Amino acid sequence: MAHVGKFGIVCLALIFTCAISSAEDDDHGADAVSYDKESFQSAISEKKHFVMFFAPWCGHCKRLGPTWNELAKIYNNDESPVTIAKVDCTVETALCSDHDVTGYPTLKFFHKKAEDFVRYKGNRDLDSLRKFVGEQSNQAEKDSEAPPVPEEEEKESLTELTDDTFKSFTERGFHFIKFYAPWCGHCKRLAPTWEELGKSFAGNKQVAISKVDCTVSNDLCKQMEVRGYPTLLWFKDGEKVEQYQGGRSHEDLKSFVNGKIQDASGSPHGKEEGKIPEGDDEEKVAELTDETFEEAIAEGLTFVKFFAPWCGHCKRLAPTWEDLGADYADKPVSIARVDCTQQKSVCDSNGVRGYPTLIMFQNGVKLEEYKGSRSLDDLKKFVDGFTKHIEL
């Protein structure tokens, strides 16, 4: 020990460096809670846990690490009933042996007891893992003796939609839908207000107020891109139109719904307020339909606005779009529009997901979707970028 030598010093330095790197290079979920044997036993008796038993050198574990970290970001908060955790089996060998871990990674969901667990054997993508956690959490909620949350009180005036019933229920008319999770604190606080909103519109044939439990209908919530709870979405004829971002008082929500219904009963788009005579409007901006669309865009440049009459952004753009049509009336480009509430087929085929959607076509082929400012000058600059090539 008195004389290690240069080679020995280098080796010791390398070993020490590797040890530090291994400790700092945690690619198995930095946001997941890490447990040893003592902390593990006490933690799982207090709360439900989804645990990854892993080895740092394991390739499958490394590939799962980023996804496990995303799962931890979703669930490791004060309102969640589940903790996403991990155990390094190269360090906690006795703990992993106690839980019959024979391969890596091993994923187990614990229901507050070491012996009460479900071993996960499904796909390791984020959506599959979330669905599993939701199912296990929901089952635990049903099996518990805790008093029911206010969600149960909504059944009289609200329809609970599922993966199977959603499409048929929402295919016609207006729908204001709450996407929630039973364990979510914000959802619980909103529940009585949402119930009251349902009662306010119970006799209204134009709109239905309903809800979706995302721990049950995980596929539907994924399809609707629900990222947090509660998410409040407005639908028209089966299509998602807008996510509500306002206040959650009964008056705020009721005002939003009434405003949407009132907007829908307004005058035809682009002709309100008597600003533009109908005859001139037809000359400046072509109104395209499912039947005329392909023929209209088959030759030359056509800049098309896909809109909905009730859309506020569309209404604000309407006079600017008419001005654009007037400015290019004698130039090699057509300015047109499509009402997606009437011409659903052509809007679907062109991937329209929001309003207004502005797309430039040339000889029947989609060139580019416009994403810039909707001022007249910016729209003209966009169009001129295409017409200059033709004029040359």
Automatic annotation (TrEMBL):
It comes from the Eukaryota. GO terms for cellular component: cytoplasm; endomembrane system. Residues 1-23 form the signal peptide. Residues 13-138, 140-254, 255-388 form the Thioredoxin domain. Residues 135-160 are annotated as: Disordered. Keywords: Redox-active center, Repeat, Signal. Belongs to the protein disulfide isomerase family. This is Thioredoxin domain-containing protein. It comes from Batillaria attramentaria.
